[in-house]
Amino acid sequence: xxxxxxxxxxxxxxxxxxxxxxxxxxxxxxxxxxxxxxxxxxxxxxxxxxxxxxxxxxxxxxxxxxxxxxxxxxxxxxxxxxxxxxxxxxxxxxxxxxxxxxxxxxxxxxxxxxxxxxxxxxxxxxxxxxxxxxxxxxxxxxxxxxxxxxxxxxxxxxxxxxxxxxxxxxxxxxxxxxxxxxxxxxxxxxxxxxxxxxxxxxxxxxxxxxxxxxxxxxxxxxxxxxxxxxxxxxxxxxxxxxxxxxxxxxxxxxxxxxxxxxxxxxxxxxxxxxxxxxxxxxxxxxxxxxxxxxxxxxxxxxxxxxxxxxxxxxxxxxxxxxxxxxxxxxxxxxxxxxxxxxxxxxxxxxxxxxxxxxxxxxxxxxxxxxxxxxxxxxxxxxxxxxxxxxxxxxxxxxxxxxxxxxxxxxxxxxxxxxx
Amino acid sequence: xxxxxxxxxxxxxxxxxxxxxxxxxxxxxxxxxxxxxxxxxxxxxxxxxxxxxxxxxxxxxxxxxxxxxxxxxxxxxxxxxxxxxxxxxxxxxxxxxxxxxxxxxxxxxxxxxxxxxxxxxxxxxxxxxxxxxxxxxxxxxxxxxxxxxxxxxxxxxxxxxxxxxxxxxxxxxxxxxxxxxxxxxxxxxxxxxxxxxxxxxxxxxxxxxxxxxxxxxxxxxxxxxxxxx
Lengths: 419, 229
Hints:
The structure holds two protein chains of two kinds. Chain A is of the alpha+beta class. Chain A has 14 helices and nine strands. Chain B has a six-stranded mixed β-sheet with strand order 6-7-8-3-9-10, with helices on both faces. Chain B has a four-stranded antiparallel β-sheet with strand order 2-1-4-5, covered by helices on one side. Chains A and B meet through helix 1, helix 10 and helix 14 of A and helix 2 and helix 3 of B.
């Protein structure tokens, strides 16, 4: 142990001497490894940022929800011909909530395009009438100080509205407008909430940021002849999604007399599938970037191996001398392995540090562009750092070990003669 | 007489492709304690091969080699390294000092491989540099030393682990005559102090100073002359 420590100290001492002796060579090697590390750190960090942004953005419309809209039958059933349009009623929503245990949330959605005005300013926006559960299911979060619609709003048919962030901005030039009023169809509505901005990867009838959301009951009292656009529901758990959908066809099929196997009687958009696909794409992108990074690092490792090979070659005489003086194979090899390890460690630290600086700097820049927002913030994660360190460590060890072992295998009489 | 080196019918064959070169052809040699042997011969005579085998830097193709009572043939590399470390002190024509290490560190090297503690290494190496009159050059790098000084550092390194045999290969070959003389007289001092020395040289003037001259030719010993004591 003592000799090992002493040996290590000499190895470090010799390495230090070597550094002053071969500054340029070592600097270049360290930079090469640093560059490789920087590449892998940046690639994987951007990959992680993109994956997280994918993850968040696919959930912009809501997590695990399904959107149902009425279709038309395509087969005759129970004595009725094919081609009958289906029409949803308020009772359908109640029936689904009451009769399908696999579903824990249902909301109606009525919608129309109307002028929404503040003073002289009018914006033509989609106005939708929904239930209180709509906000949570569709991931519409009120900004601080506001709220989404609640049950009392629905019971009392209140004239209250939740504005999308862009709509609020367009109407008022500000998003801090809770308590102010807007006009919809000559009716005054009080703003109870403004939605938090979000990015949506999936949507129907336009993004939420430009819409005005009011209670379904209020909507119906204003536009009595309107038909329901669609229903939103959420299964108790994602695994129950298929069962919930089958139940939906069975219940509504019984009610409207269509074949539960007649897929096109209802339009169902099950967002779970999209989320799964985008999650897989995100993972795929990350694996792809990781592979590129690993290859970059591998090239860097080859560089180190090449340099170490040259170094060992150059020092063949020295190796012969040390062996003549009684050095055992491992005593000859250790300095080279340590040197390679040191160079990879220094390069690794350098690359990681620079990467962190760049990532932090990017994180500080405010993002206004949509494409950049979608790219997400590059995120440095611990597993990435650990993986990089592991790859670098093994590359460094191998790069030092193999040339040194080769050198230590030569007869000292031969290596001493080497010029 | 105490036999330190005993070579029996040692042969060394180098094969380069189809060609076989017999560097040593059945050579017998005994060297006793405190002998000062000069091995001489023209280039290509096999004296370098002999030196490599004596120094355990290479192994004979056949025959036996007993060094200080231990059969050397057939030992593995690490065991041979230990034997070199314990028994042989090398002095080379081209000094073979580590260019980036100080004189003191160069002298410490064999002790390092022997597993001697840092403090003792430093003390013994310093004492040995004093012995070769380089006590004031300990922290100098080889490039800051003259040829004669470098060779004296190498001799200090060879002696620091108290080797059974000092094995010198053309130690004056790269030196001017004045420095060469100083080295030779240092060898005589060491011999007088009891050190066994095997010196390989083609310089008959230096060989004459040894107590025994072994002449090698065509891989065999052709003459073995002991000077009258």
